[in-house]
Amino acid sequence: MANISGNTTLLGGIEAGGTKFNCVIANCAGDMLAQRVIPTTTPEQTLNACADFFHENQASVGKISALGIGSFGPIELDKRAPAYGSIKKTPKKGWSNTQIVGFFKDALDVPVAFETDVNAAAMGEFTAGVAQGCDSFVYVTIGTGIGAGVMIDGKLIQGIAHPEVGHMLIAHHPLDEPKISSCPFHASCVEGLASGAALNLRFAEGIHEVRDNHVIWDIESHYLAVLCVNLTQTYSPRKIVLGGGVMQREHLLPKIRKEFLRLINGYAHELAIEGVDDYLVLASASGLSGVIGALALAKSVRNS
Amino acid sequence: MANISGNTTLLGGIEAGGTKFNCVIANCAGDMLAQRVIPTTTPEQTLNACADFFHENQASVGKISALGIGSFGPIELDKRAPAYGSIKKTPKKGWSNTQIVGFFKDALDVPVAFETDVNAAAMGEFTAGVAQGCDSFVYVTIGTGIGAGVMIDGKLIQGIAHPEVGHMLIAHHPLDEPKISSCPFHASCVEGLASGAALNLRFAEGIHEVRDNHVIWDIESHYLAVLCVNLTQTYSPRKIVLGGGVMQREHLLPKIRKEFLRLINGYAHELAIEGVDDYLVLASASGLSGVIGALALAKSVRNS
Fold it and tell me: Chain A closest CA to B137's CA: distance in Å?
């Protein structure tokens, strides 16, 4: 971590997760000047601890000119909505209807950019990760839940809410018995069948204890391959970047690629078929995509 | 059809389908000054007949300043590719590797805009149909095949090829036996299960003869509802516009809406749930979306 900011503009970034808030101050070149990880407890405690981080560090490294936040959700992204900038109804206890943007605008008096956590991570992969130079791609996280940030022609897509690709409906795998879904809404969506939470529901000992040669990994790679086929047929992206805790099982990616090729059966651009090894790729290993993306978001809203 | 152009700029449009090419000349206000429907036979015959239409009518109404084409496919849309502007490998006999854009640039000496037929139809719905003023929506055609044009923030999305949402993989309906797919690539994609071709494969007498109370319509509306759920979870659009021959069965749309609400089970923006009657809608009845969209495309490339 560098110690000097010189006289360049400084930016703040927050990766706001359900477990921890990762706060950083960096200069425009991307050098991290200060960082602090704050556990996600109550909104009041957590948000004030974040504000304290910025106040304390600004005293030594200088004032930030903008803040970018990638947040867990669902969040309100419609700038015309009264609740813009808040976390909406969420299973995360105590956090429903928490106003995030308003809090930090008041506390830090800077422009604030606000995005989904997956969009911020996608922006991070685009800025400094495996999607550099690739302006049409999908970043998918397969963790406790499944979600995606989608960049098309250099822009993150949003629509009336934001993509919820984890809730795409797919077929049950015939070997996946008994039928279990971790999704309270859908018996057969990708998240309900293939997320980390779904896998853990299938094994009392937890999915971490399950060996690589267990049939569950054939089932899991099938579900994720179906997801990748459907993302290909909808967004026609240049690349699909797979991240999140479940993808840390190293044997999974080659199995997903193989099943993807079998299922799509040649019906896609050659870059996705012959080029599958560059098409279905792992997210950057640093784990910094979220904060790097938040800083990129900050840059986009600062008053220059 | 109006007979005078005045001194305004004229535009040409072609809806290039597998059965017919619909050619028009219009002024910038959208008044159609000349129109001719040309059957799709061989590329040489069809394309020359189109060129003749423009030459003959330009002599009376005036020269067009640009041409827009919405074409059946698959087509090459990558402007950096040598085959840009051509129909790629297609089941339509004799049409594989036909250069469309080059032909009309040579024949008419004007800038040519080239898009998929569904993108042109989407543009038509946006310009003068049910999606006016709605800059994020999906236009789906359920005809012989199933395809979609997708507008996000006012721009048609493309990616490395173009969306092929008909080839999204979905679950077989348990009552849809024996298992039949009209898609040569996939045993269980939307097009293979729910297109007009798929329906016709199930009935020797043709789907037109099948009554509204047959169970096939429950199955069909289920498949199309799954498609609508998955389009909702990927694109998060403001509206889904359903067109094509299959949607002319009037009892289908209410069934799709009902099944969509059951399947998505509340997990979407209220505009898609409470507002479902404005969210899942039929395409404009005029059948002119394709040529109106082609004219809008022409407008976007003319030298002003």
Answer: 8
